[in-house]
Amino acid sequence: MTVGVAVFGTVLAINGNRDDGDRATDTVTSQPTTTPSPRGDGLQADSLQYAAQTFGTQKAPVTSEIPTGWRSAQEGTRPRYLDPTGVWQIRFDTRGSSKSPDRQVSDRERSIQEQQLTVISRDNGTLVYTYVDKTRGPRMGLSRWISTDNGDSSAVEITVGGRPQDEAGLRAVLERATSSLKLADADYRPS
User: Fold this and answer.
1) Domain coverage including residue 79
2) I need a labelling partner for 180 at 20 to 30 A (CA). Which of 10, 91, 119, 126 fits?
3) What global pTM score does this model have?
4) Residue 57 lies in a domain
5) What average pLDDT values come out for the chain (191 residues) when binned by 10 residues?
6) Does residue 146 fall inside a structural domain?
7) Does residue 132 sit within a domain?
């Protein structure tokens, strides 16, 4: 099965504007901070606003849009952004892998060591699952691997997390991060 960004119905733009060999010429600025207000009992997709964030390395920068107000808890090639309450998060892994997205899904499914793990779906390079965290209670994760070579390898992993009742909002965050993803013009990640 060929898995690529097109399967997800999104566009992966390769940033070709460079002013030298190490830095992208685009400057990313944050928009005003807004905190999503949950209506009902979950994260609402229509309450989110987004801003571009750049991470990765100087030689291989990656840019993607994340919800405004979510702050970096970890930077570099594996950045993680949390909402102010710590309930929701998005994490990226830009180190790349020679494994296909489908193989990554299978490997991740086998490696999750959480209580009451339930896999909801494992389609097109995306794993959706729930589990029970000892401290925070019921949780939901959505992990997606993005390929830039028709599914032969994985260039970026994007994982969002929250509670099961946040599923619609989490899916919206994952889709926005995927559709706005921009990689450097050259791939410096190890294979």
Assistant:
1) 47-159+167-182
2) 119
3) 0.76
4) yes
5) 34 38 37 41 92 94 96 92 95 96 95 94 96 95 96 96 97 98 66 41
6) yes
7) yes
